[in-house]
Each structure stands twice: as structure tokens, then as C-alpha cells.
Amino acid sequence: MPLYEHIFLARQDISSQQVEGLVDQFKAVIEEGGGKVAKVETWGLKSLTYRIRKNRKAHFTLLNLDAPPAAVAEMERQQRIHEDVLRTMTIKVDELEEGPSVMMQKRDRDDRPRGRFGDRERGPGDRDRGPRRDERDSSDDKGSE
User: Fold this and answer.
1) What is the Cα–Cα distance from 24 to 4, expressed in whole angstroms?
2) What is the pLDDT of residues 85-123, one digit of tens each?
3) Which domains does the chain have, with CATH numbers?
4) Cβ-proximal residues to 14 (8 Å cutoff; 6+ apart), any chain
């Protein structure tokens, strides 16, 4: 059977228990269609980049699916008509990820590469301005000796 990664966003004003109920409902649809849900990750309540149906935040949930296309299509159809689901996205993948997804992995600040200016990389507006005035003056004095 094909493998899928499916993400759906639920409204911000429902509780975490209601989100779990949605997950159970959609898992049942997949299992009735002859598939199985390999992994469920709840990423929690996150801010959205832009408003979706007057919501500024949403509950994000990832489902890794091993299911026939008909079962996935039925789940997506039910999500489109469900009032608590804001957006969905399903991607067909060659293999499912083992372990936590990138969103669930904890990234330490020390793991990031550091640039010349400490924590941030050098940007397009930053330029090398040469030596400081006091450094230039002292080098001019040495040259005149």
C-alpha cells in the first residue's frame, strides 16, 4: 500500500481532548478503508502566519499513514466538511520517518553554526568597514617614523 504523511490543522478554540477525538475519528476512517495509522504526532497549538477563517492559531497534528488511496480520499472528504478542521495536506512518500519528526526534535541553540558576529550570520546589510579610526591613526604614526 502507498505511504502518506498527512497534516491537519484544527481550530484554536477546541480543547486538546477534542483534537484527540478528531484523530480517533480519522483513524477509524483509515482503518475501515483497510489501512493503518503508523504514527500520530500532536504538535500542539501554534501561531499561524496568516489568519485562516478568523483563527490566528491552530492545533497541528501529523498522521503517518499506510493506506489505500480510497481510504485517504474518504478521510480528506470528511475533513473538508468538518467545521473544526481548517486545513489539510497529504503527501505521498517513499518511506515513513522513524522516530520523532523534525517539528518534535529539540534543537539547542549551541547546535546552530555561528558566524563572525556571534549568534547571527552576516547579512546583506553588514559590510566590512575597514579598521577603526583609532587603529588607522596609530598605523599612520608608525609609517611616518
Assistant:
1) 17
2) 999 999 999 988 888 777 877 765 555 565 555 555 556
3) 3-93 (3.30.70.60)
4) 59, 84
